[in-house]
Amino acid sequence: MIQVGDKLPGGKLFEYIEVEGNGCSLGPNAFDVAQSVAGKTIAIFGLPGAFTPTCSAQHAPGYIAQAEAFKAAGVDEIWCVSVNDAFVMGAWGRELGAQGKVRMMADGSAEFAKALGLTLDLSARGLGLRAGRFSMLVKDGVVTQLNDEKGGGYAVSDADTLLKQVRG
């Protein structure tokens, strides 16, 4: 499992782009994780699934609501990572009003979650392997804060907790 001080693993995440431009075509676009975090401070939170109760009512909305506070504290971007496809993440982001606040990053095959060691097996509930619930702060590719729920709870990966850590 990834730890504070570790370099974020490489790989690709996908994001649904609503408007063509800046080198991105309309629809799902792949982003290299290492290139995307280089020289930036990124708040990343992972959750089991788009449109699921806790994720939709609390986890993602907290980061969307606090986006300006994160920016003011020096965070360049906020990423929501979930084991869903880019189309689903795009639709969920539209519903939540995440545009311009939180990048809705798809990890469709759970490759990134597996590389982090932050997975949650929800096969018994018909959901398969998912990202566990977590949050982290990444500076220039290195994890400086990590909050792992170690299962499906929601106690330490919320926006307020990570924002307090960012502010020091």
Automatic annotation (TrEMBL):
Keyword DNA-binding applies: no
Any one Gene Ontology BP term: hydrogen peroxide catabolic process
Active-site feature positions: 55 (cysteine sulfenic acid (-soh) intermediate)
SUPFAM superfamilies the record matches: Thioredoxin-like
Keywords per UniProt: Antioxidant, Oxidoreductase, Peroxidase, Redox-active center
A GO cellular component annotation in the UniProt record: cytoplasm
Catalytic activity: a hydroperoxide + 2 glutathione = an alcohol + glutathione disulfide + H2O
Occurrences of domain Thioredoxin (ranges): 2-168
EC number(s) given by UniProt: 1.11.1.27
Top-tier EC class: oxidoreductase
Pfam families assigned to the protein according to its UniProt record, in alphabetical order: Redoxin (PF08534)
Molecular function, one GO term: thioredoxin peroxidase activity
Function: Thiol-specific peroxidase that catalyzes the reduction of hydrogen peroxide and organic hydroperoxides to water and alcohols, respectively. Plays a role in cell protection against oxidative stress by detoxifying peroxides.
Family: Belongs to the peroxiredoxin family. Prx5 subfamily.
Name of the molecule in the record: Glutathione-dependent peroxiredoxin
